[in-house]
Specification:
mainly alpha, de novo design (two linked rop proteins), 8 helices, about 0% strand, elongated
């Protein structure tokens, strides 16, 4: 008899957890981890393109050292941040990650603007291939961010809604940070370029 009562209590407890959002929270949390993993993969893909891109541009526009250094430093800053799954539970760390990636985006944008002054560079097959890969990666980053945003929105709604908010409180589930509208606008903002300055003279081909 005692065993039957215990079994029924376990059944009721299981049903209670399912009805109060426990299973939903677990499922959505796993969804966020998967979406975040894809964001990291795409950002890493972009970072991996930087050394070859900088090297190629340097071969035609070595005098653009400030821009080249800016890209290299931005990549180093991105690499210094450990983008672990736990980062999405730390708003401050998440904000630093977003800021670093935003700097990387701006630095690459400035680099591509500068390349417009170098016809030989623009016609180089290796540069065109790297530029195509970079554009494709930026598109994949956008898609990955959007999926992450959607996953976090669904999860945060569950965390805030009754009665699942009680379950979230008991099991330590908190609202997670996400890419904001301000983040997206800052990332997408093109660099300011002063075209009133004399254009650099392309280095002669060796």
């Amino acid at each position: 008899m005692k065993r039957i009562v215990t079994l029924w209590l376990l059944v009721l407890a299981t049903l209670g957890l399912g009805g109060c959002g426990y299973n939903t929270l677990q499922s959505q949390d796993e969804g966020i981890k998967a979406a975040w993993g894809e964001v990291i993969n795409q950002y890493q893909r972009r970072a991996d393109l930087v050394p070859n891109l900088v090297s190629t541009v340097k071969g035609f526009a070595a005098q653009e050292k400030d821009v080249l250094l800016g890209v290299t430093n931005a990549r180093a800053k991105v690499g210094s941040i450990q983008a672990t799954p736990e980062l999405v539970n730390d708003p401050a760390a998440f904000s630093r990650f977003v800021a670093a990636q935003g700097e990387m985006t701006s630095a690459l944008s400035r680099l591509l603007v500068v390349t417009e002054n170098y016809p030989q560079l623009k016609s180089d097959a290796n540069f065109r291939d790297l530029q195509a890969q970079l554009e494709g990666t930026e598109n994949r980053i956008t898609v990955a961010r959007q999926r992450y945003i959607k996953s976090v929105q669904e999860y945060n709604i569950t965390v805030r809604s009754f009665p699942s908010n009680l379950t979230a409180m008991v099991f330590g589930h908190k609202v997670k940070p996400s890419f904001t509208v301000e983040n997206e606008q800052a990332i997408a903002k093109p660099p300011t370029v002063d075209f009133s300055k004399p254009e650099p003279v392309p280095a002669p081909a060796k």
